[in-house]
Structure formats: C-alpha cells, structure tokens
Amino acid sequence: MSLLLSKHPIPFYYCIGIKIMARSKRLRQCEITTEDEVQLNGNEQSPVLQTQHIIEHDADASSNSDSDSASENEPQVQEQVDHEYNDTLEIEDDQGHTTNKRGMTRAKDVWNLPNGQRIVIKCNKFGQPVKKGGGILGGWLGTLSRKGNFCSLSYNSWKKVPNTVKTELIQLTRTKFKLPMDNNVNAWILKSVSRKWKDYKCELKAKYMIEDYTEQQIVNVVPKEIVPQQWVDLVHYWFSEKSQLYSRIGRASRAKHTTPHTTGSMSFARKRQEFEEKNQREPGRIEFFAITHKSKDGSYINTAASNFVSDAMVKVNASITSGSSVSASELENNAFIGMKGKDRYGRVRGYGIGVVPTQVFGPQAYIGNVRYDDNIEEVQRLKSKIQLIQDTYESRLVGMQEEYESKLDMIHQNYESRMSGMQSQLNEVTSILLNFVRPSDILGAEPRGRTST
Q1: What pLDDT band is residue 25 in, cutting at 50, 70 and 90?
Q2: Could you tell me what percentage of the chain is helix, strand and coil, using 3-state DSSP and rounding each to the nearest 5?
Q3: Is 342 part of a structural domain of the chain?
Q4: What is the pLDDT of residue 136?
Q5: What is the pLDDT of residue 374?
Q6: Which of 254, 276, 307 is the last residue of a domain?
Q7: Largest alpha-carbon pair distance within the chain?
Q8: What is the per-residue pLDDT for 78?
C-alpha cells in the first residue's frame, strides 16, 4: 500500500523522501485566501491577491516586506533601493532629546531600542510614513505581523481580529516610533499590518501546502516559529471549500495583472515623496505609473507597461490639442481611469496603503491643497521676515563693530598722546634737576672739603 494512502499520519520528512518533487513546489506562487479578500457586498477591495516568493522566516527577511505592491494589488520586480541608506535617522528619548543616526538600521534593531527611545517618523498629508524612517517602520511591522502572540494565524479574516488586539498593535508601535497623533496614521498602521499578515500566510501556504498531501500530513509538521494550535487552524482553513473558492477567484484576478512595478521594498508613498522633493511638485498619475514601472536603466519592465503609458499620453495630448480647459493632472487622471477603470472603494492606485479616493479627488483633497498652499505662503512669509531680521541684525552688528573699532582707535591715540606729553614733562624735570646736581654727586664722589683720615 502506498504510504500516501495510509490511514495513519505520516511524518512530513518521510513523505519528502518519497515525493522528491515536493521541495520544488514550495517555490510556486500562491494567492492569499482569506474571507475579506472576496467582495460579496461590493464594499471592499477586489480579491486581487499578492504574489510573493518564499523567504526566510526571520526578522531580516520580514523587514523587507514594506512594499506597496500589496496596496497596489500587483506583482513586483525587486529593484535595489539604496538612496535612502545615508538619510539621517532621528531618535528621541523620553526627555525629548534627539540624536541623529546615519546608515542602515534593520527592523530587528527596533526591538532592541533602549526603553524610552523612539524613532521619529515623518508622514505625508495622507498620514503615510515617508523617508528612511517610514521604511524602517514598514519593515518592523512586517516582523510584528509574524509574531503569533500579536497577530494570530487562527483568524481567517483580519476583520475577525478583536479591536482590543488592534489597539494594542497601535500602542506598541507608538512605543517604538514617534508618530503624529492622527487617525489617518493609526489607520495606516493597521492596514499595513493587515497586508503583511496576509502576505505571511501566503508564504506559508506556498511553502507547506503541497499538492496531493492530506490535511493531517501538513498539520503534522509545525514550523518552529508558529504556535501549534494556530498552525492547525490555518491548515484547516486552507482545506475548506470557502478558502479554495477564494483561491480560484484570486488566481483569476491575478492573471489579469500584466504590469509589475519596480519599486521593490520602497513604498509608493516614499517614492512619491522623493519625486516631490526633487521636482517641487506632485507627479501626474500616468507620470508616476511610468516612474514605478521602469528598471534602473530607464526601460519599461515590459511591453504592456510601455504601451499603457504611450496610449494614455496619446489621449492626454489629444485632449490638450482640442483646447480642453481641464488641468494637465486631471487629464492624466481621466486617461488613467479610462484605461484602467475606476478606483475601487477604499483605495487609489498609485498612492499606496491607506489612501482613499476622497482624500485625493474629493472636497477634502481640495481643502487640504488650499491649506497646503496657505502653509507654503505662510512659510515663505516667515522666511522673508526672518531673513529681514537677520539682515538688519548683521547690518547693526557691522555698524557696532565699526563704532567700537573707531572708539578703540581714539582711545589708543589719546593714550599715545598723553604718554608722549608725560614723557616730555619728565624730560624737562630731569633737565632742571641736572642743573643743580654735580655729576660727581650723581656718580657717588665725596663732597669737597672732606678728607679721608
């Protein structure tokens, strides 16, 4: 009788000895199969699922999980990102004192921060962490999502995770990172952990869910980093009809994506921030798509990406030629939506985790932009005022310096004049005295009339 048909559980390592092809199947791609990834009511994200390759289950590997590929629901091609390595990292202690640190900082180093010390994180107007600190935060959340005592694998859906657990995740994150007290930031933290948690389950499924193996065979081998009961619950869900249905939907949706991005572990929020700082403006929607779908040599990742940008820009140029009064950014957005379809509820393609359409296109976005413009004008006004004060101060300082030097010269001249006068008077007195004193007296000679005995 074949060992695979045995009624008794068979050790996994023994099965591998028989099915030599099992190992290679670990490297296949998979789709996440959780309840909240299929839209039964039309109010959630599409069931498009993240494709990932197998990585090691340690802090260093999970620290690279800070990618917006999840939020963009498209595959990615890893590109080495090293321009942020030399950015200064600001660390604040419980007394409010800050120190600057340069160089790479791994996510696991965050766990070893001394008590009271936090990494200062800067966020954009959407509440998304940016710059080097944002990358470290994303990587650290990746390690958090893999810890069963924080993010249990027993839950089939992130919606079923208790709110008390989610609150604890936010509080724990804020003990390691100094973040703005903003609800958008808290929402970003939970969405980021949620995505990384799902990605982790995807990796586990790709590594251990081997075709033709029974549920019990897979349950028997518990990965060392996973709580045993959580592993049992997770494997049981994989074999459920609901999970298999979602998996089929996910595979069909995944097949429609033909343009992987090339930002690697760098989130779209950080990539967008980098562009804005360099160009002093926000990128157009098609422009940003082109940026995030090119390799280092400037070529598009594939023909599909190149054709999309070309066709979209043809539409934009046609609208401009026709004399449209719509702004260039709106024309790009209209062309993008016309070719890619409308953004689904709860996300905006090209903006990353946590951004919703009302923040980009609604009244809130307009008010935010007006406020942002007002802030820029106020900053410029304050800078001009500071510069005026500085110029006035420097002018006064130069005047005071010249006045001081002039007075010092006058005092010196008076001193020299008085010393010269006193020297003249002294010479006159000396001359008068010499008229009454004999040279012999001055030389110590004996007085006249006195003889020695």
Answers
A1: very low
A2: 55, 5, 40
A3: no
A4: 92
A5: 52
A6: 254
A7: 157
A8: 43
Domain of residue 203, residue span:
3-254
DSSP string, 87-118: S-EEEE-TTS-EEEE-S---HHHHHTPPTT-E
Which residue pairs from 299-306 have beta carbons closer than 8 angstroms and sit at least 24 positions apart in sequence? 301/77, 301/259, 301/260, 301/261, 301/262, 302/258, 302/259, 302/260, 304/258, 304/259, 305/259
Residue 34 scores a pLDDT above 70: no
Which pTM does this prediction carry?
Answer: 0.64
Question: What distances in angstroms separate CA 201 from CA 5, 152, 197, 204, 407, one per listed residue?
Answer: 28, 11, 6, 5, 81
Count Cβ atoms within 10 A of the Cβ of residue 272 and give its class: 0-12 exposed, 13-18 middle, 19 or more buried.
Answer: buried
In the Cβ-directed half-sphere of 157, how many Cα atoms lie within 13 Å? 12
The CA distance from 82 to 76, in Å, is 17
d(C-alpha 170, C-alpha 186), whole Å: 7
| Angular region, 97: left φ>0, alpha ψ -120 to 50, beta rest | beta
Q: Are 18 and 206 in contact (CB under 8 A)?
A: no
Query: For residues 84 and 131, is the Cβ–Cβ distance under 8 A?
Result: yes
Q: How many domains does the chain have?
A: 2
Identify whether 323 is part of a domain.
no
Cα separation of 451 and 265, whole Å? 117
pLDDT tens sequence across 75-88: 554 444 445 556 78
Average pLDDT value over all residues in the chain:
77
Q: Is residue 83 part of a domain?
A: yes
- Say yes or no to pLDDT of 4 above 50: no
Measured N-to-C along each axis, helices 131-145 and 268-279 cross at an angle, to the nearest 10 degrees, of: 180
Instruction: Pick left, alpha or beta for residue 202 (phi over 0 → left; psi -120 to 50 → alpha; otherwise beta).
Output: alpha
Domain contains 180 = yes
At how many degrees (to 10) do helices 163-176 and 183-208 cross? 100
Residue that the structure tokens 């003889």 belong to = 451
Give the angle 228-229-233 at the CA atoms, nearest 5°: 120
C-alpha 28: how far from its chain's center? Answer: 30
Q: Are 47 and 243 in contact (CB under 8 A)?
A: no
Rounded distance, CA 56 to CA 59, Å?
9
Tens digits of residue pLDDT in 339-352: 888 888 788 888 98
Which residue among 234, 254, 274 closes a domain? Answer: 254
Q: Which residues of 110-120 are buried (b: 16+ CB within 10 A; e: fewer)?
A: beebeeebbbe
